[in-house]
Amino acid sequence: MSKVAFLGLGVMGYPMAGHLKKKGHDVTVFNRTKERAERWVAEFGGKSAATPAEAAHDQEIVFACVGNDEDLRNVTIGHQGAFKGLAQGAIFVDHTTASAAVARELYAAAQSQGKGFVDAPVSGGQAGAENGALTVMCGGDPEIYAKAEPAIVSYAKACRLMGPSGSGQLTKMVNQICIAGVVQGLAEGLHFAQSAGLDGEAVIEVISKGAAQSWQMENRFKTMLQGKFDFGFAVDWMRKDLSICLDEARRNGATLPVAALVDQFYADVQKMGGKRWDTSSLIARLARKP
């Protein structure tokens, strides 16, 4: 078992850190809102720290799951960032969905200080975090990844090194690009079924046994048909992720017409008041009266 820290106790980080503690790791947590860190300690044990640097002190591995590139820079190389407390030979594992550029930047900073860095974004949402069943896609050096993997699997059903620094973030971009197209297709299919007077649930019961089947279909069709979206992966977060994808595509020359279009559809959902709705709320946009 390892001495570890976890920075960021949001809807993902809170249960992920909890799984580390349940697996027997010695866990120190940090969160910008102190009360949430105190609640985590009351629930799981361990201890909390006042700053990322303090949390990282004397740890073998420090994990983070924060909001975006700038949040990540703040908790790593900021004024009281974790890199100031992280010892030589220790490892920083970042679960934030961020840009490949910031992953490479922090990898280089860690290397220059004799520390390890792994970019390790996750897929599986809040339910996956709570159930310890996330998919983790990693970028970094094989020997550093090998040291971190036994702790990562505390909350993962699948974990794989995809290549050098930044490869985890690039793989997560592929994940989000695919999801965007699938959710829009499902929204259009269900909207068509309703407009045609079909029984939506009966339609899904049939087509989900064939080539149209997807995770989104299995897990979101009922709430989409009911118009319920107050849960899950927020539209604001998806737009942030798609922005990262589209920025990277401009750099590498990839063409993403569907992702770009769906991003604009999500902008419409935001204007409808759906910033915090689940991504499956694309169907609400189609159901609007002209």
Model description:
There is one protein chain. The chain is of the alpha/beta class and 290 residues long. It has two domains: 3-163, NAD(P)-binding Rossmann-like Domain (Rossmann fold); 170-286, N-(1-d-carboxylethyl)-l-norvaline Dehydrogenase, domain 2 (Orthogonal Bundle), CATH 1.10.1040. 53% of the residues lie in helices and 14% in strands. The protein is built from 14 helices and nine strands. The strands form two sheets. It has a six-stranded parallel beta sheet with strand order 3-2-1-4-5-6. Strands 7-8-9 form a three-stranded mixed beta sheet. Strand 8 (134-139), helix 8 and strand 9 form a beta-alpha-beta unit. Helix 9 (167-195) crosses helix 13 (257-271). The longest helix is centred in the middle third of the chain and has 29 residues, at 167-195. It starts with a strand and ends with a helix.
Describe the protein's topology:
Layout: E1 3-7, H1 13-22, E2 26-30, H2 34-44, E3 47-48, H3 52-56, E4 61-64, H4 69-76, H5 82-85, E5 91-94, H6 100-112, E6 116-119, E7 122-123, H7 125-130, E8 134-139, H8 142-152, E9 156-163, H9 167-195, H10 200-207, H11 215-226, H12 235-252, H13 257-271, H14 282-286
Parallel strand pairs: 1-2, 1-4, 2-3, 4-5, 5-6, 8-9
Antiparallel strand pairs: 7-8
Helix pairs in contact: 9-11, 9-12, 9-13, 12-13
